[in-house]
Structure of Ornithine carbamoyltransferase:
Amino acid sequence: MKHLLGIQHCTASDLERMIELGEAAKRDRGSAHSAHAKLLDNQVWGLIFSKASTRTRVSFEVGVREMGGTSLYLSARDMQLGRGEPIEDTARVLGRMVHGAIIRTFEQSDVETFAKYSGIPTINALTDEEHPCQIIADLLTVRERFGTWEGRKIVYLGDGDNNMSRSWMWAAERLGFELVIAAPEMCMPSKEYQQQFSSGHVTFTGDVESAVADASVLYTDVWVSMGQEDMEDNGREAALQAFQVNHEMVKKAADDAIVLHCLPAYRGKEITAELLEERQQEIFTQAENRLHAQKGVMQYLVRG
């Protein structure tokens, strides 16, 4: 039984294989003879979502359908989970009725518990801890543009302690590319968390100038993650202003640098409106690649 619970749980070969399958899915989309066209025939996959979604929901629903299966959307408020049923019981029930589960929720432990008790392939479609599906699409995008991530410097700017930054850290640790987390001190992960990345592939800095110098990828995300909108600011947004992705920052990066954003974007905050529009081809290709990456993930979990 294979699951995608987080990049931390993956090996380098797991990641490579899912990306390769995603690339093939993109190349072969629409072909009745593709390796995945009928893979989910007569299968129903449950999408269990406690958080709002655009790209994740659409990409998985379309992906399941294009692979011959049917998706069943289940929001938490429509299920007994919303009334306090233990995740273990929900998992045991759904594991007898559907063939796979795609879960977008708050607690990482909920996804891991579901996988343990359901007996079906389980995909983390976002938790507060990690967003592995986005990272696989991002790595697919980087390789599509440069041919490899080896020898490329990827810089993550903004909130250095959210699900996206943590997933990037684990990806760099597993695959061995250079990742720089550039963030104000108040937005950095704890020292204990940072100490898990001792290989030298991941560095943490508050120096924007050195971070973006010669970077191949400038990557950013919203400054306030979903579910944290009521968090007190305490000077956080003011500190993050220096890490906004803008034209001046791009000038300091490598000549062929790309700009990526996992969306949704708040123009004028983590990225300027002008730069987002200028680089929209890169950013929306990245968004499209969610569909192909999800197909690669499902194919890997079902077939290997």
Summary: Residues 280-302 form the longest helix (23 residues). DSSP finds twelve helices and nine strands in the chain. Strands lie at 44-49, 70-75, 100-104, 122-124, 153-157, 178-182, 202-205, 217-220, 258-261. The radius of gyration is 19 Å.
